Amino acid sequence: MNISRRNFLKVSSSSAVALALGCGKEQAPAEKLSATPAWVDTRDPKYGRETTTLCAYCAGGCGNIVTTALVDGENKVVNIEGDPDHPINQGALCSKAQSLYQVANNERRMKKVLYRAPGASDWTEISWEDALNGIADKIKKTRDDNFEVREDPLNPASNLLNRTRAIAFIGGSGNENEEGYLYTKLARSLGVVYLETQARI
Fold first, then answer.
1. Residue 40 included in any domain
2. CATH number at residue 55
3. Per-residue pLDDT tens over the stretch 87-138
4. Nearest residue to 46 (alpha-carbon basis) of 88, 9, 78, 12
5. How many domains does the chain fold into?
6. CA distances in angstroms from 116 to 125, 127, 132, listed in the order given
7. What is the extent of the structural domain holding 179?
8. 70 in a structural domain
9. Domain boundary at 104, 135, 168, which?
């Protein structure tokens, strides 16, 4: 097919104008446009309350829809399904994520902080504030007692260490990238050099 440069430019420019103006296609009204795909079930749940969350098993970050309802006077998880609007799993869940409700509805689940003093045989219940303050005090004492500033304090040219080798830090694979970044910054600010994650062990 022989076509001149002039005719090619005419056809191209007219086609571009037609596309820009939307010729040949009826525009749908703005109220009919929706970001929700047609296959998504948008009906209200028959019972309970739906909440979106993330799976806590691995670092995949899959989205879940958790349904909670009042069962025997207590608010419990009654169903977990994949979130079809989530960009990672798009509604699919692995077998571990599908059984996640057993973590929330487990009779062995710890709901209180228990503490056993050194040398004691019994556990006592303490508040979250006391537990967190106790952990922070132990971290600070361990860091202060074992902090290394310089390899050789008599040699100014020696390497600056600012570290402690008495504390190790391990992150869980359920942490997101942002959480992992903050945990790493916290550990490095304390001088921790033994830093690892569950996913590599």
1. no
2. 3.30.200.210
3. 888 889 888 888 888 888 888 888 889 999 889 999 999 999 999 999 999 9
4. 78
5. 2
6. 9, 13, 15
7. 146-201
8. yes
9. 104
Measure the N-to-C terminal CA separation of the chain; round to a whole number of Å.
65
Please work out, in degrees rounded to the nearest 5, the angle formed at the alpha carbon of residue 186 by the alpha carbons of 183 and 191.
125
Tokens of 177: 């990238």
Looking at residue 31, its pLDDT comes to 46
Contact between residue 167 and residue 194 where contact means Cβ atoms under 8 Å apart? yes
pTM: 0.56
- Domain-located, residue 4: no
User: Tokens 């942002």 identify what position?
Assistant: 178
**What would the pLDDT profile of 143-189 be if each residue is shown by its tens digit?**
999 998 876 767 767 778 888 999 998 877 667 778 888 989 999 99
Sequence-separated (6 or more) residues with CB below 8 Å from residue 18: 24
Sign of CA dihedral 36, 40, 43, 46: negative
Place of tokens 């970001």: 35
Long-range CB pairs of 123-129 (<8 Å, 24+ gap) are none
Concatenated DSSP letters of 19-70: HHHTTTSPPPPGGG--SS-TTS--PPPSSSEEEEEE-SSSTT--EEEEEEEE
Tell whether 99 is covered by a domain: yes
